[in-house]
Structure formats: structure tokens, C-alpha cells
Amino acid sequence: MAQLLCRNVALGYEGKAVVRDLNFEVNSGDYLCIVGENGSGKSTLMKALLHLKAPLSGEIYMGDGLEADGIGYLPQQTIVQRDFPASVQEIVLSGCLNRCGRRPFYGKKEKALAREHMERLGIAHLAKRCYRELSGGQQQRVLLARALCATRYMLLLDEPVAGLDPVAMQEMYDLLERLNHKEKITIIMVSHDIRAAVSYADHILHISEEPLFFGTKEEYIQSEIGKAYLSVTGGERHV
Q: How do residues 67-90 score in pLDDT, each as one tens digit?
């Protein structure tokens, strides 16, 4: 069974649909990029997948042991969040909250998990540093480590490279590729970077009022909507 299955989903605001007839599925180990113009409903879809917003119609199913509170989520950062006065270790540990149950404190297991993910992402030496003192790329690694503490299965990422310099952007893409290919973590990523989407993802969901596309990246490259968007952005990125 698919980890996520959306059938005839409509999303919108105040009862008015932004996107209709949304049908797609995400299987274990997939790397799905969600693309589309501003205001097309990409971030709204993320909220619906996290059960933070109900669809106007249709159904979103979860299977293969996946639950909404077991998804690691990396949202878009705001200026306020970038200036958050907490240590790296404290922020990464906060990803373990759902694992604590009713315990009002973090145990050895949670602290060990936080250390493990900081080491995986090369930020263990920053554990005691204040988050707001870090570079943009370092901050995104901290938030990714936090998201990994919340999941064994799936990461949802909303524009994870927005505002990063080219080097930090490439490092983030490389990290996500490694997590997907080597550690088999399912990735769903909202992105404005069509070229990166067709380079790294294996499936593309293009959201727009009309038309909609869901399929493999190879199918997307050959589709009318894929050709149109790739011609505007300069073609496929080779990595």
C-alpha cells in the first residue's frame, strides 16, 4: 500500500477551491517534487498532508505504517524563526517531542537520537551554538536534523533551499539525495526550481488550476506542461 494516497482532492481558502481533482500517490522511497506557480496551492497541500488543514473535498489516505505525527516537516523559514534564541541542540531535540509521550522531559534515547542526526548532517560541533548566529545553510541543516528526529519514514520540505547561497543550496540538495538513495527516506519537496526537480526527483506533481500533472520525471520532461516550464527555465540541470 502507498504511504500517501490522494484521491479527488480539492484545496483552497474560505470554501473557494484553488486546485481541484488532485490525484497522486507516494510510495516508500519515492522522491516527489511539487512544482507550480505562486498561489497554486503547494504550501496548502503540505498542510493538508500534515492534517493541519482539511481538504475541501476528496480523501487523503496514509498507509504503510505512516501517521501524520510521524512525518518530518521542514517549513519555509521566516525572519523571526531565523532569529530564534535557542541552541542548536535544543532545536534539534524539539523534533523528538512526539516520541516523549506524556513525559515532560527528554530521555537518553531522545538525546542520543538528536546527537546521531547532528553527526549525520555535520553539525555536531555546533550543538552549543545559538541558532541565530549560524549561516543560512547551517540553519537549514539544523532544521533538517530536527525533522529527521520526528520521522523514520518521510520528510516534507517546503522550499528548503530558499534564500541559500549556491554552495549551501547544492549541499542541501546533496544531503536530501543521500537521505533518499542511501537511507531510503521518502521525500516530498515543494520547489520553484524546475531544473532541480527533474534532476533529483523521480516523480513530479505540477499543481495549477489547469492543467495538472503527476507522473515520473521522464514523463514530465516529455509532457506539454513540462516542456513549457523547462523552456522558460533553461532546460534540465545535469548533475
A: 766 789 998 776 546 677 889 999
CA distance 180 to 176: 6
Phi/psi of residue 60, nearest 5 degrees: -120, 115
Supply 7's cell numbers.
Answer: 484521491
Contact 25, 2 (CB under 8 A): yes
> How far is 7 from 25, CA to CA, in rounded Å?
9
Classify burial at 73, counting beta carbons within 10 Å of its beta carbon; exposed 0-12, middle 13-18, buried 19 or more: buried
User: 85: exposed, middle or buried (C-beta count within 10 Å: 0-12, 13-18, 19+)?
Assistant: exposed
3-state secondary structure of 88: helix
Q: How far apart are CA 110 and CA 113, in angstroms?
A: 5
Stated pTM of the model: 0.86
